[in-house]
Structure formats: structure tokens, C-alpha cells
Amino acid sequence: MSMAEMIDDLQAEQDSLDDVIALLSDDAWLTETPSAGW
User: Fold this and answer.
1) pLDDT value, residue 24
2) Cα dist. 15→19, 27, 30, 33, 35 in Å?
3) How far is residue 15's CA from residue 7's CA, in Å, rounded to a whole number?
4) How do residues 1-38 score in pLDDT, each as one tens digit?
5) From the CB of residue 2, how many other CB atoms can be counted at a distance below 10 Å?
6) Whole-number pLDDT of residue 14
7) CA-CA distances (angstroms) from residue 27 to 1, 12, 24?
8) CA-CA distance, 26 to 33, in Å (whole number)?
9) Within 1-38, where are the H helices?
10) Could you give phi then psi for residue 37, rounded to 5 degrees?
11) Could you give the angle at the alpha carbon of 21 between the alpha carbons of 27 and 38, nearest 5°?
12) The whole model's pTM is what?
């Protein structure tokens, strides 16, 4: 895999993650997780 391909792959992963977290409400960001303190 070339450096350019790795960068493209990383960008695609970041875009996918952003698609998921962009849907979270402000309240959802404040929700405690089952792994408190982690």
C-alpha cells in the first residue's frame, strides 16, 4: 500500500466516524459510559 493510499484510507475512516458522531446530540455527549474514568 502506498503512502497516498494509506492517507486516503485514513481520511475515509475519519469521514465515516464523523458521520456517526455528527448525529449525537449535546446531551448524548454528556452521557456517562459504562467505563467511568476511562
Assistant:
1) 95
2) 6, 22, 23, 23, 26
3) 12
4) 999 999 999 999 999 999 999 999 999 999 988 887 77
5) 7
6) 98
7) 40, 27, 8
8) 15
9) 3-21, 26-30
10) 80, 0
11) 70
12) 0.62
* Residue with cell string 459510559: 33
DSSP E strands in the chain: the ranges are: none
Residue 19: half-sphere exposure toward Cβ, Cα within 13 Å: 6
Exposure letters 17-30 (e unless 16+ CB within 10 A, then b): eeeeeeeeeeeeee
Cell numbers that stand for 29 in this block:
455527549
Which pLDDT score is estimated for 17?
96
